[in-house]
Amino acid sequence: MERYVYADNAATTPVSESVRRAMLPYFEEGWGNPSSLHRKGREAKAAIDNARSRVAAAIGAEAREIFFTSCGSEADNWAIKGAAFAARRKNPEKNHIITTVIEHPAVLETCRGLEKDGFSVTYLPVDGDGIVSVEDLTAAITPSTILAEVIFANNEIGTIEPIKELAAAAHEKGILFFTDAVQAVGAVDINVKELGVDMLSMSGHKMHAPKGIGALYIRRGVVIDRLISGGGQERGQRAGTENVAFAAALAQAIDDATASLSDMERVAAMRDRLIDGLLKIPHTRLNGSRDKRLPGNVNVAFEFIEGESLLLLLDMAGIAGSTGSACSSASLEPSHVLLSIGLPAEKAHGSLRLTVSHDNTDEDIDYILEQVPKAVARLREMSPLTEF
Questions:
Q1: Cα angle at 66 between 61 and 71, to 5 degrees?
Q2: How far apart (Å, rounded) are the C-alpha atoms in residues 120 and 214?
Q3: Residue pLDDT, tens place only, 147-173
Q4: Confidence bin at 388 (pLDDT 50/70/90)
Q5: What's residue 2's pLDDT?
Q6: Rounded to the nearest 5 degrees, what angle is found at the Cα of 55, between the Cα atoms of 51 and 58?
Q7: Is 225 inside a domain boundary?
Q8: CA 184 to chain centre
Q9: Considering 57, 140, 261, 327, which one is annotated as catalytic?
Q10: Are 219 and 191 in contact (CB under 8 A)?
Q11: In whole angstroms, what is the distance from residue 264 CA to residue 153 CA?
């Protein structure tokens, strides 16, 4: 293998050196339990408090509004279930949730589970770019609605939603608004107060922290039920001894990401060059919005081929990509996101997602643009579906 290009950063990112260094003290001398009153415990508690303040500062929140979780999926579950059950317990007529058809499975499966518990869920449609209509959200709100949840930026096609406008529409009708921002935090500038969101989720391994740490922002004054019961950690809202090392890792990762936001112009330029180059291949289309898009996300569909076969050829050439969400990579079903933006199943099966980051170079883009056309041509030569 002459070279290796990692272009699957939406699935996960490598742990950075600065994050690794930030974690090490808590695997060594800083191993105390933050709930203990002795020196080791106080040192660990101080580390948790420091990490919480740094995560809060990065998104314009207050430290007391940040709660550490094990991942983005847990944060999604907690926000939706917590809001739903808290509202219904207070008023049994409150039993309606609004979300969209292009959400991450952590949201969709949570909502489907709530339907089994007697809640009703409206799944809003999207347009051909994957954008949710403010008018559709407003029309879906009823007197029984508790919460609206819309993904900040789609994990497959990279489309960025009009979160500020959607949150305002929800609040005008008196309901809570939550956004899954796992793909967006660290990639775009986010200020929760300016956006007006009530809750927001994030995940460390999307921004060079390890897998196993996330956070949920809960606006001060918003009351939701606990998802995990037990001790009094996280101000009584989430039981379980805090993962001090990983909290420190998330803080360092979000600090680094915030400091590097200016470099996203370079990342977006690589993205655009990659899109332009891939669209020169005949019978290829871009999935998602061209303009309202995450800086590093490229998702294209090639007709007459299977995406899995393309991935294998690219992997043999030293290029790591994806056909869609890593959480669904073992499924043979076409992407629900691509189907929702209007692709027929046979075209959705030919999708390729490449997600680049600060670590990628112009030479990486050159190499991808050299190898992908070769792989597509080879597969089309063998395909019985090819029509040209």
A1: 125
A2: 28
A3: 999 999 999 999 999 999 999 999 999
A4: low
A5: 77
A6: 140
A7: yes
A8: 6
A9: 327
A10: no
A11: 15
pLDDT in tens, 2-43: 799 999 999 999 999 999 999 999 999 999 999 999 999 999
Same domain, 220 and 291: no
Determine the Cα–Cα distance for residues 71 and 65; give it in Å rounded to an integer.
17
What backbone torsions phi and psi does residue 315 show, to the nearest 5 degrees?
-65, -40
List residues bridging with 11 in a β-sheet.
none
Residue 175 domain-assigned (yes or no): yes
CA angle 351, 354, 357 (to 5 degrees): 165
User: Which CATH number does the domain housing residue 37 bear?
Assistant: 3.40.640.10
CB of 297 within 8 A of CB of 322?
no
- The letter for the amino acid at 388 is F
Q: Per-residue DSSP letters for 156-206? A: TT-BBP-HHHHHHHHHHTT-EEEEE-TTTBTTB---HHHHT-SEEEEEGGG
How far apart, in whole angstroms, are the C-alpha atoms of residue 312 and residue 211? Answer: 25
User: What is the β-pairing status of strands 214-218 and 66-69?
Assistant: antiparallel
Structural tokens at position 283: 């019978």
Looking at the domain assignment, is residue 388 inside a domain? Answer: no
Question: Do 63 and 36 sit in the same domain of this protein?
Answer: yes
Domain range for 320: 5-13+261-382
Angle 125-131-137 from CA coordinates, rounded to 5°? 55
pLDDT in tens, 271-323: 999 999 999 999 999 999 999 999 999 999 999 999 999 999 999 999 999 98
Residue 69's DSSP bridge partners are 214
Angstrom distance (rounded) from CA 263 to CA 187: 10
249 touches 214 (CB < 8 A): no
Token digits of residue 323 = 């056909």
Interatomic CA distance for residues 100 and 83, integer angstroms: 17
Catalytic, 327? Answer: yes
- Please state whether the predicted TM-score (pTM) of the whole model is above 0.90: yes
> What does the block give as tokens for 19?
């994050």
